[in-house]
Design goal:
mainly beta, about 0% helix
Length: about 120
């Protein structure tokens, strides 16, 4: 973990893994969290706003590899349990790329997944 200054932190995981008696998951990735609001009110979490950027690759518990990249920064707000803004592109090996759009800032628990040009609304 690296403190980038200005309320920003980066993490890098290389060749990480989690194993149980039933499966192993592997993961490599990098992520940056940037605290963009609320950092000056330590005791009030509801006004916090964090942006997340990064990418990852790995193998899931079913043995299927994947790649993911945050296309536009994900926004998390302290007074909302959902990601409120941003887009991720995910590509499971052998499957079409999925783009997940979390919207433009509403705390509504809805995202849109687009696969091969077809959009599906999902509840988070």
């Amino acid at each position: 973990m690296t403190n980038n200054g200005s309320h920003s932190y980066s993490t890098v995981i290389t060749d990480g893994s989690v194993s149980t008696s039933d499966y192993t998951v592997t993961y490599s990735g990098e992520k940056t969290l940037r605290w963009i609001a609320g950092y000056d009110t330590d005791s009030i979490a509801d006004d916090d706003v964090i942006e997340i950027t990064g990418s990852s690759i790995g193998v899931n518990r079913s043995g299927k590899s994947f790649a993911a990249i945050i296309l536009s920064a994900l926004t998390m707000e302290g007074d909302c349990k959902y990601i409120t803004k941003g887009q991720i592109s995910m590509t499971p090996k052998g499957s079409s790329t999925r783009t997940i759009n979390y919207g433009e800032g509403a705390c509504d628990g809805v995202a849109t997944v687009t696969i091969n040009g077809t959009a599906y609304d999902i509840s988070l």
